[in-house]
Amino acid sequence: MASVTSLTDSVQQQLASALSATRPEAAGADPLLRRSDRADFQANGILALAKKAKSNPRELAAEVVARITTGDLIKDVEVSGPGFLNITVADRAITGNLAARYADDERLGVPLNENAGITVIDYAQPNVAKEMHVGHLRSAVIGDALRGMLDFTGEKTIGRHHIGDWGTQFGMLIQYLFEHPGELAPPEEVDGEQAMSNLNRVYKASRALFDADEEFKERARKRVVALQSGDKETLELWQQFVDESKVYFNSVFEKLDMEIRDEEIVGESAYNEGMPETARLLEEMGVAVRSEGALVVFFDDIRGKDDQPVPLIVQKADGGFGYAASDLTALRNRVDELHATTLLYVVDVRQSLHFKMVFETARRAGWLNEDVTAHNMGYGTVLGADGKPFKTREGETVRLEDLLDEAVQRAAEVVREKARDLTEDEIRERAAQVGIGAVKYADLSTSPSRDYKFDLDQMVSLNGDTSVYLQYAYARIQSILRKAGEVRPAARPELELHEAERALGLHLDAFGDTVFEAAAEYAPHKLTAYLYRLATLFTSFYDKCPVLKADTPEQVGNRLFLCDMTARTLTKGMGLLGIRTPERL
Question: What is the pTM (predicted TM-score) of this model?
Fold first, then answer.
């Protein structure tokens, strides 16, 4: 199916043609087309052009209007204010364009990006041997949504889950396992909850022994050296430990309704062998220098207390490597081996300074350049109702599993209250889709860089900007289509549209433009805003325009067509965000 040019682009092209015909020197000028409350579109570019040509903007606007042909695309155009053009699109163009999109069930006529590249997305980064908590939510949800949008635009995405599976704490854990064999059951014999329970038990026991026994502490430190040097027995125990954690990770991501591919889980350990080379290259290039025995990178614009420079430590004075070496080695791997054109990191905003220094170091080394760019998608904090970081009543960090379970439980209450013909099994299934969707939507509908309050009552509300509102709009449409029976949706471009039909149709046509904008700006909240507006426009259309009881059979078919096109757009858009749309609620 060929892609469909949006009405915005079609009108833009016709205006640009009229502009260049009026003033040849304006060839290629942007009409600056935008949505308007007074008309379908408003063109503001004539003001800038008139200023440049030192002419009267209203007179220039009138000349442009005289060169615009009205008819199949543009119904009417008039000069407004100091020289704006208010443009009304023909009903036939709206319905015809939607009909072309409707014929492409998979992509809704949305084109692929001709300049697509390869984006490696670093997201969903849990730590081995530690429970996932509310702080892990945003990285996973935002990263998954960005990946969905980028994939849809034609970008090739590769996930990288940079799990914490390396470092000094693992010497303690592995040594304990070495001295207490059989403490961890094979991963295939336990579920995710049991796996985490085992890990917690081992961690607490090893920590208690580490703190109380100096001899064990010394053995644990030696075990770190053995791990880093590749000792076979140590690595075997470490691998069992990692496998046990993955069982748990997968159970949590399954609850989040997210696919995490095993080959994309590439932890800090994967870069252990490459870190010495990273350090050597940086030192040979003069990017990093020795300071008090450590290998560091200094920056003119990054200073701390007393105006002292804050360096990025690549290698410690004792020869050990930290996060900077790991991140720089991972960056080299993603550029050299994965051939990334874009590196996207979905990490806590509190790590922004660290990644600013890592990226600048990579640019100085030539690993980032005009062909390879890196972006830090720093995200804000999940807050409780009191506006403070989300904690339990006891002041503990909220376990992610508990949070998700409660969301599903609350959603079950909402679904059961509304359910008419659903079985208990269906209610449980819908509750998971509604509850998890509510959590994701609340996160994604907020600009990633901002904090947001976690309020389950609001998240599962049927009113307001929630995923539940969108899911019920979709389910309502499916109910209408079922009631229509053998009467099928059929676009009728020759029909005059009601004002509510026009508004809905124009918004439907903007789906592709919105997805491209949201993907390009790494802004999933722009897609959620579009979808919420779509649901509200559909509600207005449904209230003002009878569907099955419309005046004529042609009108019934056309309104069913608008309903079905809305449903397809809702489910496609929600799907890009990782949210399901149940057929019945």
Answer: 0.93
Instruction: Using alpha carbons, list the distances in angstroms from residue 491 to 26, 104, 105, 477, 561.
Output: 38, 14, 15, 16, 6
Coil, strand or helix at 80: strand
Please tell me the distance from the alpha carbon of residue 19 to that of residue 524, in angstroms, as a whole number: 35
Question: Does 474 score more than 90 pLDDT?
Answer: yes
Give dist(CA 27, CA 244) in Å, integer: 63
Instruction: Give the largest Cα separation in the chain, rounded.
Output: 91
Integer-rounded Cα Rg, in Å, for the chain is 29
Q: Measure the CA–CA gap between 411 and 154, rounded to whole angstroms.
A: 34
Average the pLDDT over 108-134 and give the result.
93
Unique residue bearing structure tokens 């470092």: 167
Question: Could you report the per-residue pLDDT of 79-106, keeping only the tens digit for each?
Answer: 988 888 999 999 999 999 999 999 998 9
Cβ burial 296-315 (10 Å sphere, 16+ → b, else e): bbeeeeeeeeeeeeebbbbb
Give the pair of three-digit tokens for residue 43. Answer: 């063109």
3-state SS record for 465-520: CCHHHHHHHHHHHHHHHHHCCCCCCCCCCCCCCCHHHHHHHHHHHCHHHHHHHHHH
- CATH fold of 7-89 reads Gyrase A; domain 2 (3.30.1360)
DSSP character string of 237-272:
HHHHHHHHHHHHHHHHHHHTT----GGGB--GGGGT
Distances (CA, A) of 1 to 26, 94, 361: 35, 19, 45
Q: Indicate the length of the chain as a whole number.
A: 585
Reply yes or no on whether the pLDDT at 123 is more than 90: yes
What is the residue extent of each domain of the chain? 7-89, 169-258, 400-576
Residue 268: alpha-carbon gap to chain centroid: 23
SS3 category, 542: helix
Query: Which CATH number is 400-576's, of 1.10.730.10, 2.30.30.40, 1.10.472.10, 1.10.10.10?
Result: 1.10.730.10
Q: Rounded distance, CA 539 to CA 542, Å?
A: 5
Question: CB–CB of 44/32 below 8 Å?
Answer: yes
